[in-house]
Amino acid sequence: MKKEWPLWEVFVRSKNGLEHRHFGSLHAADADMALENARDVYTRRNEGVSIWVVESKHITASNPEHNGELFEPAQDKVYRHPTFYDLPDEIKHM
Amino acid sequence: MSKHLYNYILGIADNNLILGQRLGELCGHGATLETDIAITNISLDLLGQVRSFYQYAAQIADDGRSEDDIAMLRPEREYLNVLLVEQPNTDFGYVLARQFLFDAYHYLFLRELQSSKDETLVAIAKKSIKEVSYHLRFSSDWIKRLGDGTEESHERIQNAIDDLWTFTDELFHQTKADKAMIEEGIGVNNLKLKEIYYSNVSEVLKEATLVVPESKYFQKGGKEGIHTEHMGYILAELQYMQRTYPNMTW
User: Fold this and answer.
1) Tens digit of each residue's pLDDT (9 = 90 or more) over B6-64
2) Is there a contact between B138 and A5 if contact means CB atoms under 8 Å apart?
3) Which residues of A touch B145 (CB under 8 A)?
4) Residue A18 C-alpha, separation from nearest chain B C-alpha, in angstroms
5) Closest among B194, B176, B94, B78 to B139, alpha carbons compared
């Protein structure tokens, strides 16, 4: 039997209307305990209104070795940013 | 001042203070990082609640003593907490069993205190009960986990429950202050909580595959200021700073 509890990733929504954001990780025996632990570890200073937990093994991560092929091609494609439009002055937040 | 009301408030507050101090001893020594933080949070909740009670007690005593004086500078015989909360942190099982046996009472007590005739007590009860609902959920969950966990966790939590059971009856004893306050509609008739307490506790224990102790032999004394041998050590640590450097602040 494994002695260590599995690792869980914690996502907290800090305000209604905002999205859940990754806050950190913790150990817990199951999902219920992970939620309780997340409440105690990450929201005791009034940081959140909703918590998601997911066992870390269920997250598929990109491989840092592939960063070149995955992300570099996007670097020299400025035309993918909508920066070449003349915006009317009335539009404040773009 | 109303001596009965003053003692009644201390009876409530001292439970929180001493249990909070006990849990505080575990800060940095928790079984895991997560339970360490959880237990320290509970300790801080209890100490937060206690401030409101001691402030109120100081106001009623009206003898120049502050909330800190009342909390920190009484001799052992004047502390009115139940024996249960002063029992030591023998192991994780004892910590959780003590917490569960107290939370189950604390929750019922605060629920009733919300209909007291004393507005200050009602306000404190309303604020505290949310925290205590969480404490009860936390400790009940752990009782179940340990109870139907491994052979060792089952045995240890059963031992802790068996040992601490002897301190549960005192929760329902009534001191002179209790009786006077019940009479005035200020205090909670704790005797009436006894049946539901044991029924709630038994339900959790059964779900945890634990045996509900049948012992009819119970300890008492804390509510009258007669404590177990552990109390002196708790106070020695709790009062050290104020006794050594009177009136110090930081």
Assistant:
1) 999 999 999 999 999 999 999 999 888 999 999 999 999 999 999 999 999 999 999 99
2) no
3) 29, 33
4) 25
5) B94
- In chain A the first and final C-alpha atoms are separated, in Å, by 55
pLDDT-based confidence at A2, cuts 50/70/90? low
Contacts of A26 in chain B (CB under 8 A): 33-34
- Does the domain formed by A1-59 have CATH 3.10.20.520? yes
Question: Residue ranges of the domains in chain B?
Answer: 3-244
Question: Token pair 């009876």 is at which residue?
Answer: B11
Q: Using alpha carbons, select from A68, A45, A65, A50 the residue that is nearest to residue A12.
A: A50
The CATH architecture assigned to B3-244 reads Up-down Bundle (1.20)
* Domain residue extents for chain A: 1-59
Rounded mean pLDDT of chain B?
Answer: 95
Can you tell me the distance from the alpha carbon of A33 to that of B43, in angstroms, rounded to the nearest whole number? 19
CB B16 within 8 A of CB B43: no
Q: To 10 degrees, the CA torsion angle through A57, A55, B152, B228?
A: 140
Q: In what order do the strands lie in the sheet with A7-13?
A: A21-27, A7-13, A50-55
Whole-complex ipTM? 0.71
Quickly count: other Cβ atoms within 10 Å of residue A60's Cβ. 5
Whether the CB-CB separation of A9 and A53 falls below 8 Å is answered with yes
Q: Cβ of B182: how many Cβ atoms within 10 Å?
A: 17
The string of pLDDT tens digits covering residues B154-205 is: 999 999 999 999 999 999 999 999 999 999 999 999 999 999 999 999 999 9
